[in-house]
Design brief:
This protein has about 550 residues and is an alpha/beta fold. The protein has 18 helices and 21 strands. It has a 5-stranded parallel β-sheet with strand order 4-3-2-5-18, with helices on one face. A 5-stranded parallel β-sheet has the order 7-14-8-9-10. Helix 2 crosses helix 16. The protein is globular, with a radius of gyration of 28 Å. The mean pLDDT is about 95. Bound molecules: flavin-adenine dinucleotide and iron/sulfur cluster (3 copies). One iron/sulfur cluster binds next to helix 1 and helix 2. The site of flavin-adenine dinucleotide has 38 residues, from helix 7, helix 8, helix 11, helix 12 and helix 14.
Length: about 550
């Protein structure tokens, strides 16, 4: 037999019961800073764009994303996604696949031909950007959106910087890069190619520029002195990867040794395999756990048959062979020589030991400070020369595409302020929505979507993209895994649990408000909000 319902008051009847003055604390709706947003070097409002993606409104999601970063299809392929490392969901099951959803949105925008909205006004100011790598492109995009006329001068024959002349095609197809650069051009950014800037002051004066952003990257290969016999073939990694963009592909031979432990060394080894080398071996002086390369890239390289020779330095190269010395790590983790030598067969040796910045364009520029080979900038990204800003690989920071893009955005905002005689004021940061803010009981387990990969057999022989994108169903599912940390996602919990009907619904997209005439301050809404979007604050006495 069905149980009859208990006799209760009608819904809404409790609203007859005014609170009066005895409440000691009241709930307020807040927006906290999700850890993913906090960790993104490009400053993306990830939770906000995932919120639109969850609803299937991909264009709104893409527009929210590109408020901060104009290259989502590129980022969705090459960013090392620190956002995912910080994601709260990782403490429940696995981090949200932010990077794969970002790529989906970027690809969708290219497929559907979405364009950026033109600036609302023209400022009449002219800004010079030197270098069309990610930092220069990002600064140009943000400056143009602020209404400034922007001209990029690029030394190379094509735009993209290291995204084109460093990162191999199997990680970043060039049609994707071209499409995102073309969209920035279509916004009205002028890109002059084969236009190396030799003297920044002269170019600014002759071109009538009001300010400049320098983003020339780091392109000069670091060398190590390696004694070599006459026929030894020694190349540098940056020049080799650059030549992959030209008609004449490098001739490396069957056995290729690569010296270095960073991501560039892995890119060279994987490229060598695709060019037909039967053996590509990375020689590195420390151990795998001390390699600067990212673990997933090491795994992908090992899967493709790249060999690793740990704890070894190269002493000499002769035709067809290299001599390596075995190392040991001392107490502090520094490699120390042992005097033990070994010979490896190698037809060519590629040095991947990092890059220095070519600072010749700054020759004679007054006020600039250069330390450890990089240009010093203040927190507003300005160099010591008024009106000349700099970012990306040429300033002291982590060298990644995402950091470079973040610098471009930050510099653009500061340049805009400087041109208007102001200083740029950052909005105060919200309090962080850490894991302890969440009520995880409300979220179901949902394992992360696995990104499809190109079959191994096809990787070694082609430059086809290795990591594939998500389809719409998977992208939507992945977006819906977001817990919306610290930001209301309109789940209606507070509305449903309030015993005093003091939560007023304002309609889709407008969230809720509290009716303090009826709220008793019991705090059940804050307790039961899944994502920590309600704070209890003491009543003013
Ligand atoms: C092989 C390799 C793989 C990498 N892979 C990744 C990755 O997967 N993910 C990641 O996040 N980062 C990666 N990086 C790092 C990343 O590419 C760089 O940190 C990033 O490109 C730096 O951007 P940037 O705009 O400062 O400089 P760059 O990308 O180097 O662009 C600088 C541009 O300035 C131009 N220029 C130089 N001098 C002048 C001048 N005097 N006048 C006019 N133009 C000039 C150059 O031609 C170039 O186009 C990789 C780097 C390498 C080398
Ligand atoms: S740019 Fe990188 S860190 Fe930022 S959201 Fe995308 S994947 Fe995450
Ligand atoms: S769950 Fe969503 S809002 Fe929270 S950290 Fe992860 S991606 Fe960001
Ligand atoms: S309980 Fe739900 S509706 Fe209420 S604030 Fe939290 S997320 Fe928003």
């Amino acid at each position: 037999m069905d149980h009859p319902f208990a006799v209760t008051l009608e819904v809404g009847t409790s609203r007859a019961n005014h609170t009066g003055s005895w409440r000691t604390s009241r709930p307020v709706y807040v927006d906290r800073l999700p850890p993913c947003n906090h960790a993104c070097p490009a400053g993306e409002n990830i939770q906000a764009w995932l919120f639109h993606a969850e609803a299937g409104d991909y264009e709104a999601a893409w527009r929210a994303l590109t408020e901060d970063n104009p290259l989502p299809a590129v980022m969705g392929r090459v960013c090392y996604h620190p956002c995912e490392t910080a994601c709260n969901r990782a403490q429940i099951d696995e981090a949200v696949g932010i990077n794969s959803v970002e790529r989906f949105l970027g690809d969708e925008a290219i497929r559907r031909g979405w364009r950026f909205k033109p600036p609302a006004h023209e400022s009449g100011k002219r800004v010079l950007v030197v270098g069309a790598g990610p930092s220069g492109l990002s600064a140009a995009y943000h400056l143009r959106r602020l209404g400034h006329a922007v001209e990029i001068r690029e030394a190379g024959p094509m735009a993209g910087g290291m995204m084109r002349f460093g990162i191999p095609k199997y990680r970043l197809p060039r049609d994707v890069l071209d499409a995102e650069i073309d969209r920035i051009r279509a916004l009205g950014v002028r890109i002059m190619l084969d236009a190396k800037v030799g003297n920044i002051h002269k170019v600014m004066k002759n071109g009538g520029f009001d300010a400049a952003f320098l983003a020339v990257g780091a392109h000069i290969a670091k060398r190590a002195y390696i004694p070599a016999g006459g026929a030894a073939k020694i190349l540098d990694a940056v020049a080799l990867l650059r030549s992959m963009e030209s008609e004449d592909k490098p001739l490396l031979g069957r056995r290729v040794a690569i010296y270095g432990g960073g991501n560039t060394a892995l890119d060279v080894a994987r490229t060598a395999k695709r060019l037909g080398a039967s053996e590509a071996i990375i020689v590195y002086r420390r151990t795998r756990d001390r390699m600067p390369a990212h673990d997933f890239e090491v795994e992908e390289a090992l899967d493709e048959g790249v060999l690793m020779k740990w704890l070894s330095t190269i002493k000499r190269m002769d035709e067809g062979k290299i001599t390596v010395e075995k190392m040991v790590l001392d107490d502090k983790g520094f490699p120390q020589p042992t005097g033990e030598l070994e010979t490896l067969e190698a037809d060519s040796l590629v040095l991947a030991l990092g890059q220095d910045v070519d600072l010749s364009l700054l020759d004679g520029a007054p006020g600039l400070t250069i330390k450890d080979g990089v240009v010093q900038v203040s927190p507003d990204m300005m160099t010591g020369a008024p009106g000349i800003f700099a970012g990306g690989d040429m300033v002291p920071a982590e060298r990644t595409v995402t950091v470079a893009i973040g610098h471009g955005k930050k510099a653009a905002r500061n340049i805009d302020a400087w041109l208007n005689g102001r200083s740029y004021e950052l909005a105060p940061k919200h309090e962080l929505a850490g894991f302890d803010r969440l009520n995880t009981w409300y979220y179901a387990d949902a394992p992360k979507t696995v990104r499809p990969m190109l079959e191994l057999a096809r990787r070694s022989s082609t430059f086809e993209e290795v990591v594939k994108g998500l389809d719409e169903t998977n992208a939507l599912y992945e977006a819906r895994r977001c817990l919306s940390c610290g930001n209301c996602f309109e789940c209606d919990n507070c509305y449903g649990v309030c015993p005093d009907n003091a939560v007023i619904k304002l309609g889709p997209g407008n969230r809720f408000r509290f009716d303090y005439d009826f709220c008793k301050g019991c705090g059940v809404c804050a307790q039961e909000c899944p994502c920590g979007a309600i704070a209890m604050v003491p009543e003013a006495i």
